[in-house]
Specification:
Layout: H1 2-22, H2 24-35, H3 39-60
InterPro entries: DUF2065 (IPR019201)
Keywords: Membrane, Transmembrane, Transmembrane helix
Length: about 60
């Protein structure tokens, strides 16, 4: 199980690095836009992301 968790974390790092590598200016602009959002909006986005990820894992397994 630890090996699979390590693989998953490595894949997250690869996926997270794609956008800043391919289009750094647009990525920076998106990050600046996110920084201006309220905490409640960021929490809602985080919750939606976690629920979407959990749902997709459930469907794929």
């Amino acid at each position: 199980m630890w090996q699979q968790l390590g693989i998953a974390l490595c894949l997250v790092l690869v996926l997270e690095g794609i956008l800043p590598f391919l289009c750094p200016q647009q990525w920076r602009s998106a990050i600046m836009s996110l920084a201006r959002l309220s905490e409640s909006r960021l929490r809602l986005i985080g919750l939606a992301s976690m629920l979407l990820g959990t749902g997709l894992l459930y469907l794929l397994d």
